[in-house]
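lol ok so funny story. i was supposed to be doing the assay writeup but got distracted and ended up predicting the structure for this chain instead. priorities right. anyway since i did it might as well share w the group, maybe its usefull for someone
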Amino acid sequence: MAQCQQEATDRINERRLAISRNIFSDEATQGTPEIWVEGSTLRRFFSSSDLMDELLGKTETPILKHKRLLCEHGKGLHPRVARRGKLLTETQFERYLELLQSERERLQPKQEKNRVTDELGGTVSDSAPVCDLVIHRDSHLFCEQCAGKYKQDLRSKVDKFTELNHLNNILSPSNDDSISIKGDEGMFAVSKSFIAAFRKVAWKILKPSALSSGCTTINTDVPVEGIDHFETSHFALLPEEDEVEIVVPPTNKDCLDPKVNSKIVCESTLPSDIHFSIPFS
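and the output, tada:
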């Protein structure tokens, strides 16, 4: 047990030193980053705290599985996927592969060493390549079709996020004192219970974007890193108007009042055509 622990510690220390000397050397970092690599494996390897045995110990499959990350058109990466990776210089990329291969071979029993004997008595490699697809900046990096649609999706998400966040902020209890009614200005009375329920639901929708950006609250800025996590399926256009209706399945606790003001208005005075009538979850 102690020997295994020592071997693991030695591997981590050697990896840390090799990364510093080979990948972050002045020579390796010179030039323009041209080759894209998947980000999660890179971060695990660079952390020098993760042995990655379940990944490095397999010789039958590539360590860097880039082919499966290509978009549905097979022409490149979807921008959302590309953002999760990292561009390296050619030297950095080559040395990254060398270090991965070195640790992979170190994990194999000496009698195997990723080699088998063929019928003629020679030896052939039985190990899958470290990387199954090299993605260059000028080829395969972005699929134009996916990039065009992604821009449209982002624009829609930003607009809806901004509007929902604005509503959530202006309906904050801290703003109650700043509201004044001066005559007939087309203002509407809304029950506090409805507003409280609405803000709970709004935060549930906004929360994933905030947390993915490392925030616990959202003021006015759109979280750039978290906007992909903003789910627009909660919104649907009303059939007859261009207004936005929020559509979320109901829950027992945080359910929006189908009539908005049923708790403070007589039943007979409620309009029958309220659009904001679908409960949240």
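The chain has two domains: 2-142, 155-174+189-269. Confidence is low (pLDDT under 50) at residues 113-124, 237-242, 246-252, 272-281.
back to the writeup now i swear
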